[in-house]
Structure formats: C-alpha cells, structure tokens
Amino acid sequence: MTDTSEANKMRNREIARNEEAKQITGSARVSIWAVAVAVIVGGILFTLGWLSLR
Which string of b and e fits 21-35 if b means at least 16 CB within 10 Å? Predict the structure, then answer.
C-alpha cells in the first residue's frame, strides 16, 4: 500500500508542477497581449493628439 500511495503522491506533485508551468505561460501570454494593445492604443491616441495640434 505504501508504494502505491507514494506513487500517487509523486504523480500528483508532477501534475501540480505541470499545471503551474501552464499557468505561468498563460499569464505571460496575456501580459504580452495587454502590453501590445496598450502600445497600439497609445500610438493611436498620440497620433490623434499630434494631428489635432497641427
């Protein structure tokens, strides 16, 4: 019984590590998209402001 429960614990730990890696990757991907959208919107607003001053 002990071998089985230890194997289950090891398997659960490995699953937890994999899930953590997926969450980190997903968070980084969302952050990159957020920065890209902010840069695009900022560029549009800057251009509109610059054109209105000319």
Answer: eeeeeeeeeeeeeee
